[in-house]
Amino acid sequence: MRQILWFRRDLRVEDSALLENAKDEVLPIFIFDKNILGKLPKDDKRVTFIYKSVLSLKSKLKNLGLDLAIFYGEPKEIFSKLKKLEIDEILCSIDFDSYAKKRDKEIEELLPLRRFIDSFILNPQEHLKSDGTPYKVFTPFYKSLNTITQADSIALRKRNKTITLVDFDYKNFPTLEGLGFEESILPESLYKEPLELLSLFSLKLENYQENRDYFHKDATSKLSVHLRFGLISPSMVFNYIKRFSNSEFFIRELFWREFYNYILFHFPNSQAENFNGLDIKWNENEENFIKWCEGYTGVPIIDAAMKHLNETGTMHNRLRMIVASFLTKNLFIDWKKGEEYFALKLLDYEASSNIGSWQWGASTGADAAPYFRVFNPYSQSKKFDEKGIFIKSVLKELKDIETKLFHIENGVQSNLFVNYPKAIVDINFSRKRAIEKFKEAKK
Prior knowledge:
Blueprint: E1 2-7, H1 17-21, E2 25-33, H2 34-37, H3 45-63, E3 69-73, H4 75-82, E4 89-93, H5 98-108, E5 113-116, H6 138-143, H7 146-149, E6 164-165, H8 194-202, H9 208-211, H10 224-228, H11 234-241, H12 248-266, H13 286-294, H14 300-312, H15 317-330, H16 335-345, H17 351-361, H18 377-384, H19 389-394, H20 427-442
Parallel strand pairs: 1-2, 1-4, 2-3, 2-6, 4-5
Helix pairs in contact: 12-17, 14-15, 16-17
Binding site for FAD: 208, 220-224, 250, 253-260
GO molecular function: deoxyribodipyrimidine photo-lyase activity; DNA binding; FAD binding
GO biological process, one term: response to stress
């Protein structure tokens, strides 16, 4: 038996479905996919992080007596060549977004492809309602998983220690520059190992439920990028956090990620269509969309959040909800445009979670916010950043502004000594307009 172990978004040796199911001779590989990289800007921070993580995986595999062959190209072309090595099958983790399904179908025409649920805890084909249909609402979905969520731990996969390495050239692989990218400086958390981040987060767990919404506080786990690319498995995160008595709220958050993957699997059209089927006539004001993207809306919390995203590739979850509500309700611009922009910028971009979250904010998705729930960005910034700590850290030109002005519509603009653009939309008017348009769509 000769197998290719195709690492993709499971860049680890612990709790690895590939290493558990590997047999006899193996060729571990990673492919920097031209079809994906070709759409990214040359300074995309994710590529730096993935490249660093792939080299780390190679080192860890070598410590186990294995290695990693690293390729750059189109998967179909690469597997056409590898097929000549008398390969019996390919083992890989499964993805449910449209590109992944199309890519895997092409590869399966060349070689048998055996897929594993390795990026999530749940198999979305399971855990259906009693009538055999999938859940569409999170709370009953979560309650149905009681035997899992209330367990002390989830069994982890064990490595097959009897496998041997296929003779191959493992020494030659592309540089980051050879991929066409520049090395980027990453957020500090991305230079830490996942278990170190978990250890630090455990100290904050007691106050997590209360503090997680305050985006100027260091209250979150910072694990989203590591989970996205599989440097740690969700089961490992579950087991670590479950040791603490106050773990329930974080565990629930972990299963929101599972829920969105479950929804994308059962309703693949939701990647490009409103999940609830509403036919909404969105505003097509491109100028306002660009101002939202670049952080020039005249609303301090929106502008700070978007400029911070553009600079760092990160955004706090509360801020994601605020900017999504502003785009889809106040500007009444299609959620898909926001989703696509986040896909370009977010270090932790994951199709299922991003699509699900945007449809939640736009009131078009599974178990979404009701259409009449429109976040007021000024009251949100007052509630969660009253002293303007986050806003001032990003919008340096406003560092001397009286803080209360951040939380008043066009308040900053009332200061004659500051050149700050007028808000591009009236909050109350746009809120009423959004509600009326949703009512029309529902009819």
